Amino acid sequence: MAIQDDIKSAIAEALPGLSCVIGWGAGPEALRAAPLFMRDAADVDKFTAGFLAVNNPALFLPSLKGAKVGLVVKGCDARSVGQLVAENLVSREAIHLIGYPCRGVIDMDKATAALEGRCEPGEVKGLREENEDIVLDAPGGEIRLAKKDVAADKCARCRYPNAESADVFVGEKAAPVVERDDYADLAAFENMALDARKAFWEKEMSRCIRCYACRNACPLCVCRDHCVASSREPHWLTQADGVRDKLFFQLIHATHLAGRCTGCGECERACPVGIPLLTLKRAFSRQVEGLFGYTAGIDRSTPPLLTFKLEEPAIKEREW
Amino acid sequence: MSVLKEKELRVIGFLCNWCSYGGADTAGVGRFAQPTDLRIVRVPCSGRINPLFVLKALLGGADGVLVSGCHPRDCHYAEGNFYARRRLEVLKGFLPVLGIDPRRFEYTWVSASEGQRWQHVVTTFTANIHALGPASFSPDAPELEILNAAAR
Amino acid sequence: MVMSTDTAKKFVSFESLPDFLARLAQESRVYAPRREGRAVVYRLWGPDDKAEFTARPTESCKQVIFPRSEALFYFSRGGEGENPDASSLILQEAPEPGPAVIFGALSCDARGFLAFDPVYDGCGTGGKAKDVYYLKRRELTTLVVRTCKTPLNTCFCTWVGGGPASSEGADALMTEIGNGWLFEAVSDKGAALLQSLPDASEEQRAEGAASREAAQGVFPQPADIKDAPVSLRALFDSAAFWEKQTAQCLYCGACTYLCPTCYCFNITDESNGIKGLRMRSWDNCMSPLFTLETSGHNPRPAKFNRLKNRVGHKFSYYPKIHSGRFSCCGCGRCIKSCPSSVDIRKIVLDAIKEAANV
Question: What is the pLDDT of residue A319?
């Protein structure tokens, strides 16, 4: 792919002034890439972009303070960087962003579903991209899947496919997939009765293993070793394997991301047991966009829950 | 004395120390009859109220949660309730995705002198919760349910 | 408990399997893999459930014997309500576990318990410090292992002494043949479980043997990792090596909690009013809290310290004191479910290579 070579050139050009550049390289199996930390020319050779460039490299920024770092970013990754900068959690001057037009990334859960009855994703030996399709080298022969059928949900509502804030942009900008996010997924979810929604979360959360990959994969979860959920004082959570504690952990995560979440979906992707966690974060994002017209990771104003107005035009307080 | 005939429900109130707790006190001193379902937790300011307080109560079996603070521009700490207003409004719109009826949570403003208003707020809110009936709550781990059963 | 007589071989068709499970469920809690969302998890089986015996389970089945959380005992103060009697303390034992069957576990899952056993059976204490909670459940649980036909990209059971049809740690094996399952008892417990089933025909036995042999042929050749224990110890102080290997790690607990051989736990008290319980729950060496000391000092402050410990424990420190057995069954779940694509195989191989160059 020509664009991949152009990105490599951009990385090689920037690398001398940086401690490392984070992108993607080959992963442990055909359908998965791995985050790649590039420190020299040999590392740059291993760089791959494309449909498997799933991981959000912004995740590593807060732990790499003190040295200028380069990131290769999709549009959604750049939003995470933007939000970290807006909250003064990282310094924009210490980051070199290399953007490229993203045309969507794979969702392993959808790939699993698409392959059901034929093979497990872990049995696929190879993958090649052909325009709008991916072709898999599977045990029973080649399997062709349309990218749009196995792309992440976030890609179907992508408003910002290009890292607008990039220092270097490689390639021609891609057109936004949609003009605005209508939160149709949430509306569909809310077609369920209240009791059914509650039952849905209890069932989904019952298989949570409390590994907290959702938290650790979140680029905006910057408390890291000092998470309030791991504290005994205050004692928000017990150590027990119960649905109530598991759900409450998600509420801790979601409330702390209200007005901050950029919808990159890494929480949901990281979940080893496939719990649809982004739904909770999107419920907060919809509220914040609706009430304050704020789009996290894009707007440069103070995040709405860190400020206020004397009169709130959008809030109709209850008249008792 | 309860003004409602039915079985008491568990309604949790988070009241700021300077206005609403005073307002509730004024209502008591004035001997205004009120329902007794409300258990009050006094906090320094409505700005102190972490939305997680409300969620923890609702997940743990509360049938309703009421937050009350000073009227906007009257906050003892000047701006605590302005932050609270944003947080609590965002929270209220979030509850339905969890399957929690948003009417189980309200926030409002009552000053220390508004004994009658407090009576009105608590009576209205408690009646609303009774209309909704008892909430179902999410199960705990089996080993904790043994303790919960003992406490219920 | 290896059987002395000829192992019993039985056959159950796909249609009559639920009846067999239902019979088992009358006597024991039966756990079987089930598809939930896109994950496959072990769940208490009920007659309305469809067990998943094709896709490999996302999680291991260790929680049946080593629950994610369990009560050790309950405690309460004497007295009543708001007047507790601080001078009295009433203790109550946790309820006894009952018999259980893990049905359709993988052979790597079964071998995982072999890493648990010596640790919980008082090794290093002359058998004195036995973990009665673990041992009781272990004794009461029967493991029916489903043999694998094909490997996943992340499978490496053959590197650590296992294989697609290893019977090590299993009580019975089940192998898919034609229109049903061939069952073979491995232990007395397994034989007792299979007793009521009809015997398999000669052809069915042969088909089972052929299927397992075919599987053996398609699983990866083992890599040579016999130097891993020495190499990993030699690299203990090579911070640069470990920082590079672990740069992408998120230090979440997915690898440890999905792992069939990770056995670490934490003990905490949870209380509600004047009653409470002391409980044990899974712990996770990727978390900074695992080693955080009361003083605030943390001997493993960075993620590279912690992942180094995880790899080192499995491939060096554990084999050193347990006659060379790796504390890894090669199921590959830590690789398959790692959100950041960390590959423990690569770390071990790189360490062997690096140590040879030092």
Answer: 67
- Say which of A125, A203, A241 has its CB closest to residue C68: A241
ipTM over 0.90: yes
pLDDT for B137 equals: 79
| A4: its two tokens | 């991949």
The distance in angstroms from the start CA to the end CA of chain C is 46
In this complex, the chains that touch B, judged by 3 or more CB pairs closer than 8 A, are: A, C
Sort out which chain B residues have CB atoms less than 8 A from A201's CB and list them.
Answer: 98-99, 138
**A175 and A186 co-located in one domain:** no
Q: Which of B141, B143, B151 sits opposite C273 (nearest CB)?
A: B151
Q: How many domains does chain A have?
A: 3
- pLDDT (tens digit per residue) in A212-244: 999 999 999 999 899 999 998 899 999 999 999
Q: How confident is the model at residue C3 (pLDDT cuts 50, 70, 90)?
A: very low
State the best of C63, C75, C270, C282 to mutate against chain B, taking most chain B CBs within 10 Å: C270
Q: What is the pLDDT of residues B1-10, one digit of tens each?
A: 445 567 899 9
Same structural domain, A253 and A307: yes
Q: Could you tell me if A30 and A100 lie in one domain? A: yes
> DSSP code of A50?
S
C70 and chain B in contact, CB less than 8 A: yes
CB contact under 8 A, B151 and C272: yes
**Residues 6+ positions from C224 with CB-CB distance below 8 Å:** none
Residues in chain C within 8 Å Cβ distance of B144: 270, 272, 277
Q: What is the pLDDT of residue C282?
A: 98
Residues A206 and A267 in one domain: yes
Residues B13-36 as b/e (b if ≥16 CB within 10 A, e otherwise) read bbbbbbbbbbbbebbeeeebebbe
- Please name which of A165, A166, A168 lies closest in space to residue A12, comparing C-alpha atoms: A168
Whole-structure pTM value: 0.95
Residue A205 and residue A175 in one domain: no
Nearest chain C alpha carbon to B142: C70
> Which residues have a Cβ under 8 Å from the Cβ of A285 and sit 6 or more positions away?
A258, A259, A261, A263, A296
Output the six-digit token pair for C234: 């030699």
Instruction: Tell me: pLDDT of C309 over 60.
Output: yes
Query: Which residues constitute the domain of residue A30?
Result: 1-104+159-179
Residues A274 and A314 placed together within one structural domain of the fold: yes
| Residue ranges of domains in chain B, CATH in brackets | 11-151 (3.40.50)
CA pair distance C225, C261, nearest whole angstrom = 18
Is B31 near chain C, with CB under 8 Å? no
Closest approach of chain C CAs to the CA of A275, in angstroms? 8
Interface contact C74-B141, CB threshold 8 A: no
Pair (A202, A307) in one structural domain: yes
Q: Is there a single domain that holds both residue A94 and residue A118? A: no
> Of A209, A250, A255, A292, which to mutate for an interface test with B (greatest number of B Cβ within 10 Å)?
A255
